Amino acid sequence: MSSHVLNRWEPENAAFWQQTGARVANRNLWISIPALMLAFSVWMLWSVVVVNLDQAGFNFSKNQLFWLTALPALSGATLRIFYSFLVPVFGGRRWTAISTVSLLIPALGMGFALRDPSTTYPTLLVLALLCGLGGGNFSSSMANISFFFPKARKGLATGLNAGIGNLGVSVVQFLVPLVISVGVFGALGGAGQTTQSPQGVSTVWLQNAGFIWVPFIVAATLAAWFGMNDIADAKASFAEQAVIFKRHHNWLMCWLYLGTFGSFIGFSAGLAMLTKSQFPEVNPTQYAFLGPLVGALTRPLGGWLSDKVGGGRVTLWTFVAMALAVIGLMQFLPSAGQAGQFGGFLAVFILLFALTGIGNGSTFRMIPVIFLTERLRVAGKGEAAQRQATLEGNKEAAAVLGFSGAIGAYGGFFIPKSFGTAIAITGTPHAALWCFVLFYLSCVLITWWWYARRHAPMPC
Predict the structure, then answer these.
(1) Closest listed residue to residue 92, CA positions, set 402, 404, 304, 407
(2) Do 94 and 413 form a contact (C-beta atoms < 8 A)?
(3) Which domain holds residue 83?
(4) Which residue of 10, 27, 68, 139 pairs with 80 in a disulfide if CB–CB is 3.0 to 4.6 A?
């Protein structure tokens, strides 16, 4: 048996947790976080690359650019469905290392492709789909970390893993505009692309958007392989995990997480292009990173608040606030001959990101509590029965964390595409925003009925 395999893992045992568990769990968490951050950076690369393609000599339509921002979310969400179940099959250490090293494929691919403005649009579409490898990692990462921590600490632990991991979105949107402006890698990275515009001659090294991540991916892969652990008790086949498809709470939480994380990743993917279309005088790369930064920082807050007052209550009021914020956002958009107000638009969007972060943390705090409680309710009275129910509840919760993460990620496709479609049909994004309001209100009703009202079927 490998020294990396933990044959005994009892986080709910206070003595075990204090003597051994906390140290091991925290080490795995702090290796997992930077690996997940890199995954998010690779996943969201196109959200910032598309607004710089014209500077590098690429010439695509607005609709083509929206497709490049939306496709990574589509492939990432689909991969998450499979990644959700792979940690109990392969082990957390092994799968974290494998999934992290796979990020080299889109990073190197984009580096080489973006050096040449004659690279075809279908090639770029394939690379956009390959960036979905970064999106898939989230489900396996969250499922893995959930195994390590006791019930009382799951909210904060998963909040830190996802919240700091989500910072990868902000990092890519802040770092890429900087690294493409200089020849970071010299002759090794290739020559820059020079274009002429009314503002003068400019040179960009767009390939650096891909190459910059390569050394960090290698380092994170080695850290995962040599520093993380597999939990023997967490092993489970796909058939054993597939029981979640019979649990109605799985589908309810998928809907809610589509509202929180789907909004976070969808707004992250679409904000720069939406800004460029509604406020053409504004450089979106100067501001696009702010929203994802705030959303990532508030995710641990959502987990911590939920540990204190209950995830259902936090989630309920988060959706109420999100619906109101979207209505407020529309007041600052250009319409009916009015120019709109960018300052108000940006401020409300940052508020929306903060709310999505809180909701991300609270929904992921709800899931372990729901499935552990459900299994304990039907378990026998004896200590062995309770322990078996706890083990089964944790396995189901890990699978649901991953699967709901997969469904939630589809928001990264639908939101930017809905912006593009609404603008193409009506000239404004208002129709898409009203759809978001209605969706958030449905989330309010689901949360209140099942989890937050007095005598709710599953208070959490």
Answers:
(1) 402
(2) no
(3) 5-452
(4) 139
Q: What is the DSSP string of 282-328?
A: S-GGGTTTHHHHHHHHHHHHHHHHHHHH-HHHHHHHHHHHHHHHHHH
Q: Give tens-digit pLDDT for 352-406.
A: 999 999 999 899 889 988 998 888 887 777 788 888 888 788 788 878 887 888 8
Which residue stretches of 102-153 are H helix?
Answer: 104-113, 121-130, 132-148
Within a domain: 460: no
8 A C-beta contact, residue 443 and residue 453: no
Cα-flanking dihedrals φ and ψ of residue 327, to 5°?
Answer: -60, -40
Neighbours of 455 (CB within 10 A): 5
Strand partners, 138: none
Q: Is 340 helix (H, G, I), strand (E, B) or coil?
A: coil
Say which CATH number the domain at 195 has. 1.20.1250.20
The reply to whether 347 falls in a domain is yes
Q: Please report whether residue 338 resides in a domain.
A: yes
pLDDT tens-digit series, residues 126-155: 999 999 999 889 888 988 888 898 877 877
User: Would you tell me how many other CB atoms lie within 10 Å of the CB of residue 358?
Assistant: 28
**Among 415, 433, 352, which Cα is nearest to 47's?**
415
Taking only Cα atoms into account, the Rg of the chain, rounded to an integer number of angstroms, comes to 22
The answer to whether residue 272 sits within a structural domain is yes
pLDDT greater at residue 195 or residue 449: 449
Q: Which two tokens stand for residue 187?
A: 């002759």
Cα dihedral 33, 39, 42, 48 sign: negative
Name the domain count of the chain. Answer: 1
Kindly report the number of other CB atoms within 10 A of residue 19's CB atom. 10
